[in-house]
Design goal:
3 domains; 8 strands; mainly alpha; Arc Repressor Mutant, subunit A; 48% helix; 536 residues; four-stranded mixed sheet
């Protein structure tokens, strides 16, 4: 067998992602907060990059010999127009792939033979613990929440650093659930063992105030290798601690599930016929029917009239299904818009928000020293990297502005009429107009926000599919969802609209939509079905 060698010429095309292009794509998909972090990191790592905080000094230029023309162009802030901005669009040439919880009633709580007196915590339950407690224990300075001389000294202050105290900060502080329960625990006279058991229960609560694990499970986790008799003693101590914690404020804390939580709150109320019926409604076997508002089956099961169910249901509606949530500090998530919709004459335009534009420039002195040096020692690469970063950041905001302006041109009615004026829009429509890829449009519209007269919205919000109308045009799905929400808000609570009736009303307005589509939009709006919206 003879092997023959030959030379062949083959032509092929492939996309090579240079480091500059990769950085441009990565910066384009970053949010405003992530971009600020990236800019701060680059300012720390690259000595040739500096922040142009003093714009007046930057416009006046350095006092000594100015840099050459090439360096002068790089020294301009990124929000100034650049001459080479139109020469190529690295972000557009790349084609990489684009980048309500409901409470359920568990069945662990057995409401069969449980009475109101058994669920109530009586003071006699803790009389034995109070007699066993050390009378000097409450005087120890280490107990949390207790007043002593050290606490008084801390409250009066020493006079040092008092000017740093911010009294307004106390108004914004939210006490943690566990701290709130420990403050109540500090006022109880208990033995160290009982106090430790109650502390273990408090530490095991979730943010909603529920105890996801039983005392038996907690005992097994706290002491996995203990003998059976010690494990049973620990279980009993945890049961006692659980009953104590369940007597604290807020009512319902320490429950194992929703049914027990609601029943514990009802047991704190005065006992009458309505509260007793509400206790039956909150039983596990009836809670599912209550959530679906199946009044007929509830009336047959409990053998009560409709007016009695109405009073009991109103009492249950005032209960708190998440008693610990009020003690959870909700972090404020503020969104800084990247673009702002401004009215210019009769049209709306999208302009960049100057507050989010980082002002960067090349350090002219360092760049000039590098140019005069004979041996750069690899610093020329850092200088080139700084130039790339400034141009890529500038290119990022230019692309965002172009896309936002194209979106604003097509959604002019939204700025005047709100959601009802939204028109159908897809990514390909904007991509074809600007000569960019759909993946680029997807990156630009993700985590980028526009400030409008109706609020701040993500750019993706302005895109949506269309539904056919009798006139031959199409209606935006966002506008249809707004119509559905308006219909539900104006419906009769005693006879709420079904999905079919909503579809018929939309058809009367010339919008052809199926009942299943209405149900899908209703679920997306988190609107409950007809049975759950009906008021008895």
């Amino acid at each position: 067998m003879v092997m023959k060698q030959s030379l062949n010429l083959r032509l092929s095309q492939h996309l090579a992602l240079t480091p500059q292009l990769q950085q441009s794509i990565r910066l384009l998909q970053l949010s405003t907060v992530e971009l600020q972090q990236e800019v701060e990191q680059m300012l720390e790592l690259n000595p040739f990059l500096e922040a142009d905080d003093d714009s007046a000094a930057a416009d006046a230029g350095p006092t000594d010999a100015g840099p050459p023309e090439a360096e002068r162009a790089d020294a301009a802030p990124i929000d100034a127009p650049a001459a080479d901005a139109a020469s190529g669009s690295p972000a557009g040439s790349a084609e990489p792939p684009p980048a309500a919880a409901t409470d359920a009633a568990g069945g662990d709580f057995d409401a069969g033979g449980e009475t109101q007196s058994e669920m109530r915590l009586d003071a006699e339950d803790w009389r034995d613990g109070a007699q066993r407690a050390d009378p000097t224990e409450s005087d120890s300075p280490g107990e949390p929440g207790e007043w002593n001389e050290a606490s008084a000294a801390n409250w009066q202050g020493t006079g040092e650093g008092d000017e740093e105290f911010d009294p307004l900060g106390l108004a914004h502080s939210v006490q943690d659930l566990r701290a709130h329960l420990r403050a109540q625990l500090a006022g109880c006279s208990l033995t160290p063992q009982d106090r430790a058991a109650a502390e273990a229960i408090i530490d095991s609560l979730d943010d909603d105030g529920y105890l996801p694990e039983s005392p038996e499970q907690l005992a097994a986790e706290l002491s996995p290798h203990s003998p059976p008799e010690e494990l049973e003693a620990l279980c009993e101590a945890l049961r006692v601690g659980l009953r104590l914690v369940q007597s604290f404020d807020p009512a319902g804390v320490g429950a194992a599930n929703l049914a027990e939580c609601m029943r514990m709150q009802l047991l704190r109320m005065p006992s009458d016929a309505t509260s007793q019926l509400a206790l039956q409604l909150c039983a596990p076997e009836h809670l599912d029917l209550l959530s679906r508002r199946d009044w007929k089956r509830l009336g047959r099961a409990l053998r009560v009239e409709e007016d009695q169910l109405r009073c009991a249901q109103q009492l249950v509606a005032r209960l708190d299904p998440r008693p610990g949530a009020r003690f959870t500090a909700q972090a404020a998530h503020s969104v800084v818009p990247d673009v702002i919709a401004q009215r210019m004459g009769t049209r709306w335009r999208a302009v960049l928000n100057p507050e989010v534009l980082p002002r960067l420039r090349i350090h002219s002195l360092y760049a000039e020293l590098l140019r005069r040096a004979r041996d750069s020692g690899g610093l020329s690469g850092q200088l080139q990297e700084a130039r790339w970063f400034v141009r890529n950041v500038q290119q990022r905001f230019e692309t965002i502005e172009r896309v936002a302006q194209a979106v604003a041109e097509r959604q002019q009615a939204f700025f005047s009429d709100g959601e009802l004026g939204m028109r159908p829009l897809v990514l390909r429509e904007i991509a074809d107009e600007l000569g960019l890829h759909e993946s680029t449009i997807s990156r630009v519209t993700t985590q980028k926000y526009m400030l409008t007269p109706h609020g701040t919205f993500e750019l993706k919000y302005f895109f949506g599919s269309g539904l056919a109308t009798d006139s031959g045009a199409s209606a935006s799905s966002t506008a249809v969802r707004a119509l559905i929400r308006s219909m539900v808000q104006q419906e009769d609570a005693a006879r709420p609209l079904s999905d079919g009736e909503i579809a018929e009303r939309l058809a009367e307005q010339g919008i052809s939509v199926a009942r299943r589509t209405v149900a899908k939009y209703r679920e997306a709006l988190r609107i409950p079905p007809t049975a759950q919206r009906k008021a008895i």
